Amino acid sequence: MSARLLVILARVVAVIVAAVAVVLLLGPFDAPDGWDKVLHAAGFYGFTLLALACFPWHRKGDLIVTVLALGASSELAQGITGRDMSVFDFCADAAGVALAAGPIYVARFRQIAQRQPNLAGAPAQPIERRQRVRRPHEGEAVGLARVQPTRRRRSGKTSTNIRVT
Fold this sequence. Notes:
By secondary structure, the protein is mainly alpha-helical.
């Protein structure tokens, strides 16, 4: 099965899940006592995973913000339709999104830590700014070349250049 076919399949599943979610979030259904926040977190965990599967070529941060906006708009829609609008439900939605997106950012942090340890919180090595590049003196051998003074044609000033002798 190709990657493109898997994305199309994930998008079809996402449309079906979104239709079911709209009915469950806005319908006259009540969750059993104590399960409301767990169901919100589990639902938005699944929404986030579906969004990441449906749009693998989009930026993950944008998808996460979109799913969070979907959670906020679902709470506003619940308030409009006569159900209880709750900030705690949105917090549960955000927790579900964070649980789904967390491993992505942990893996990215580990990748940065392996490639660039100074950026990932490791103690940075002090930079010695007093070190200068030492210019060779006249007559000193540099590799296979010797440093000899040369005169500039226009100004007549003497400068040091490296010439192979």
